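User: Round two. Same drill as before: sequence, then structure, for each protein.

Assistant: Same drill it is. First protein:
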Amino acid sequence: MQPNRFSEGLKTLRISRNLSQQGLAKLVQVSRQQVVGWENGFNLPSCKSLIRLADLFGISIDALVGRDSQS
């Protein structure tokens, strides 16, 4: 599976906050392997994880998943 807007955006956000994949995983309460899967486009986070990610980065879930206002 190829990276998508979500996976690319998540990696950009993580790096901009100087977080390792392990560090992000700890903050969101998931495994590092789950973060790797998200960033590589292999899977998507659960609703609970999406909420935690959006709260952590201070953005909406729409912005987090790459959904613009025109969609």
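Second protein:
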Amino acid sequence: MEVKVEDKKSNLVLENRKKLSITGVNEVVSFNDEIIILNTNLGALTIKGNELKMNKLDVQNGDMKITGSINSFAYTGNQSRKNNESIIARLFR
């Protein structure tokens, strides 16, 4: 059974570039105070900024709240990236 992108729910709400609420989070790949990388229902999401903090993470519902100075966020593809795949492995496919 194939799941369509339309069937997957994911929302982003940005308030004054200081608070970001996200739904549809599957896992946190990596984070520090300048970059957070997430796997969501709609693909990998990269959030960049300064003094970023994850205030709430509800794993069961996939809800997350991030505070700090948010400069950008972008989806990097439709599919979640594999955590253990190195950049060298991706280059030499």
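The chain has one helix and six strands.

User: Perfect.
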